[in-house]
Write a structure and sequence with these properties.
The complex is a heterodimer. Chain A is mainly alpha-helical. Chain A has 3 helices and no strands. Chain B is mostly helical. Helices cover 71% and strands 2% of the residues of chain B. In chain B, helix 2 packs antiparallel against helix 4. The chains are: A mainly alpha, B mainly alpha.
Chain lengths: 94, 802
Amino acid sequence: MIYVFWGALIAVAAAMVGFVYRVIKGPTIPDRVVALDALGVALISIIALLSVVMKTQFFLEIILLLGILSFIGTVAFSKFIERGEIFERDDNNH
Amino acid sequence: MSPVFLIFVPMLAAILVPFLFKKIKNMHTGWFVLAIPLALFIVYASFVPVTMKGEFIVSELQWIPSLGINFISYIDGLSLLFSLLITGIGSLVVLYSIYYLDKNRESLHNFYVFLLMFMTAMLGVVQSENLIALYLFWELTSISSFLLIGYWFTRDRSRFGALKSMLITVFGGLLMLGGFILLGIMGHTFSIRELIGQTPELASNPLFILALVLVLFGAFTKSAQFPFYIWLPDAMEAPTPVSAYLHSATMVKAGLYLVARLTPIFAVSSTWIWLVTGIGLFTLFWGSLFAAKQKDLKAILAFSTVSQLGLIMSLLGAGSIAYHVDNAANSVFKFAAFAAIFHLINHATFKGSLFMIAGIVDHETGTRDIRKLGGLMSIMPVSFTIALIGSFSMAGLPPFNGFLSKEMFLTAILALSDFNLFSFDGLGSLFIVFAWVASVFTFVYSFYFLFHTFAGKHKPEELPKQAHEAPFGMLLPAGILGLFVIMIFFIPNVVGNAFIKPAVAAIQPFLYQTPSDIDITISAWHGFNTEFFMTVGIFLLGGLLFWTLEKWRKAYDLVPNSLNSLYDGMRYMSETGANRFSNWYMTGYIRTYLIYIFTFLIAAVTGTLLLKNAFVIDFESVSSISIYTIIVIVILIAATTAILFARSRLTAIISLGAVGFSVALLFVIFKAPDLALTQLVIETVSVALFLLAFYHLPEISRNEVRMRFRLRNALIAFGVGVTVTLVALASFAQKAFPSISEFYKETVETEAGGGNIVNVILVDYRGFDTLFEITVLAIAGIGIYGMIKLRLSRKENKLENK
């Protein structure tokens, strides 16, 4: 049974290499952002698999956190690409 | 009233002076001040019968008893003599200053406060029995002298003179403090009498010579001995009453007092005798040589003071020899201490009056330049008479007191050639030559001072003022001193019994039981002996030299005034040198300072490791390394290397993020979930902040080509890395105690009621740290908010982003 998890780990790692290639190469910025988002998801799966391999449940919080961070990061980057800034100011700024 | 309080009377009176000056306008403030030294003089004079019997008066005021530091007033013959000089001449000087300083134009409240402060300081110096209290008063004399020299503070020369005298005397004072502390360490007491009691033990102490030299530094700087005399001529910028009081009669004699007071401790050492006698004689010679060169009346008197102080100093040194000869009571060296004290009194009288005359001449003609003066004899007959008495006494002519002390001086110096200890023989005759030549020059400058001021042709066109005789009040104090000069010549033994013998008994306590044991009588005539012929020689050669003064005056121009230029050069060098030094190492670049810090770290830590043999590696307790760890470490190293060799900043930032995330992964592997959580979040936020900073970089430097390689930086970085690694390995190998964590593991459930050991430590066992880390975070947040919002330099509210 454990070999299944090992295999999955290797597969996810290989996928990550692919994502990293896209981050470095990716002709446009949206390409890179999508690749980064995918990398985040891949990290989540790696930690989940590692928790299974190490037989511990202490890292489940990290998975949640990574999910949030990855989402926020992607949204922030998207907004940056679309509007040019992340936090908008009020017009009657004080 | 206990005598120790008398010391502080002038200081307390000084508090009232500004009020008197402000409130009572139509009366000169000096009249109120005059009462204080006069009253003190009378009180001190009433102690004379006590000290004449060889007894002393001690009174104590507790100051810091736990450290053995107290104000102890110890009045024996020596301190009483000085106290009488201080208060007596103090009264005369205050009287003189009433007429000298105008009550409408001068800031008298300052003047008399400084003067009274000085009086307290000086009384404290001569009466203190405790070395530390003595030092306190000693520095107080330096400070009040500084204030008095700089009294006309709008003049450049006054400030220069004040600073110079301050620097030199405080330099000596600090060294003297060192000597005092050494004495305190050696004798376990600061009390002078107790130290005198344990002289033999002190002399065998290795610190003895060092203490001796340090104390002498203080005495020599204060008493203007060679080569520290240079401040005294520049101190002549002070008002003349100050010059008369401080720089001839009292303060410059503080060094002499110290030498005399500590003679019983130090006289056993040959270094003491050599230094005191040698430096004193050389100062005598040097000062007399330069006095005739001066063109300013007060400068002549200043160099003459230097020279006469050297004379007294050399006599004190010769008096110390009495501790080394057998049958001292019959030897001629006991004579030297007597002559020293005698001349000290004489010098105070005639020099005080001469300074007052110089002040009168300045006051009534408007100049002190001796080239413009002349022919004042018929215009100022009274001043001339007093000046004649003073100058003739200074030159050593009968029937004035200077004659007597000069004869005694020659006797003592002649005796030096018979003294054989400490390889004195041979040099003794050199001393005689020095002393004799100095006496000749003393004769020359005394006549030069007198006759070039009062004789010759009157030059009214060169004088700023119409010359006329001084008011009676100004002549009175000078006249009283002149009267003393003559009186002492005719009744020297009265003075000798009342003041000199008790003082000598204090300097040489081992030789005499009571002052009346000293069987010295002063006589004006003691037959046709060597001294007599030497005196005749002085008169003849001195007269000849004075007669031909103008002919050889040009020779003086060849003598450079190198000691003053040495002082100026030293000040210039220390200023520019210190400037250059700090400019050299304080470059203003953080990188330079970081290089200093890291180099020091490497040197200090590896040095300590090597010196203490602390470098040990122990592989016994190392645990096995898993494969994940190796992989993560490889990633970590790769990412770190990428930072160093990155072409663009963006790559560096991303690599830094990679480092952070791999550290988080390490935390996962080493089973620290809380740390991993925090590390992830913080790393994300800080990478975002780095990106923010990067985004706002100016266009030009945004894409800088990679960091340049510098060998020095590389070496230092390598060194720091190796150092830290060594320390980590060494400290891992030498764990002295087992960890405390077992306690936490056992009690986290029972004591704290928690399951997460990290969190329980953070908020329960050691919650205090957490509190302040929260505070740090709050401060950082407020700081950032403040930096962004608060723009005091730019008034208009401008948007940063747009």
